[in-house]
Design goal:
By secondary structure, this protein is an alpha+beta fold. It contains 4 helices and 6 strands. The longest helix has 11 residues. It is globular.
């Protein structure tokens, strides 16, 4: 699939936002995600595969990764927003909102019927981007394995 990829853009604070996967710094992304409440201990290889098969956006400051967001999508009807983060030293500058809005404005994602996400603590951020609580949560189901990346008790993999 050939995507129309928006050109990188810079903001007034000298941050660069780009959809170019070549700029993504897997060490930074894995380092952050492996410490989060939603993917503790996630293997680096799993992060690499997820990035490879998703639409990703990164924010950079002076050539270093400052933020990241990933979208799992069929580019036609559905998108699942996940792994959104901004490193602590770059927070409170509107970077997460910028990444989400850039994804929502992506030319290949126009006309999607449903966007979804899960969050424990950023409801106010996502509300600014049009997300609302599920109106009929009883219609949604999941298979959830929260300890998927935990090391076995005996230390073997």
């Amino acid at each position: 699939m050939s995507l129309l990829t928006p050109a990188p853009i810079a903001n007034e604070q000298s941050y660069l936002l780009s959809f170019d996967k070549e700029l993504l710094q897997l060490e930074v992304i894995h380092g952050f995600l492996s410490q989060t409440y939603w993917s503790p201990g996630i293997p680096k290889e799993t992060v690499a595969r997820a990035v490879e098969h998703s639409l990703c956006v990164g924010v950079y400051f002076e050539g270093r990764q400052a933020g990241f967001a990933r979208l799992v999508t069929d580019y036609t009807t559905f998108a699942y927003l996940c792994d959104v983060f901004v490193l602590e030293e770059h927070q409170r500058k509107g970077l997460a909102k910028w990444m989400v809005q850039a994804l929502q404005a992506h030319p290949e994602l126009q006309g999607l019927r449903r966007w979804m996400l899960a969050t424990a603590d950023a409801h106010a951020l996502y509300a600014q981007c049009g997300f609302t609580p599920l109106t009929q949560p009883e219609r949604f189901m999941q298979v959830h394995q929260p300890t998927m990346y935990a090391a076995p008790a005996n230390g073997q993999h």
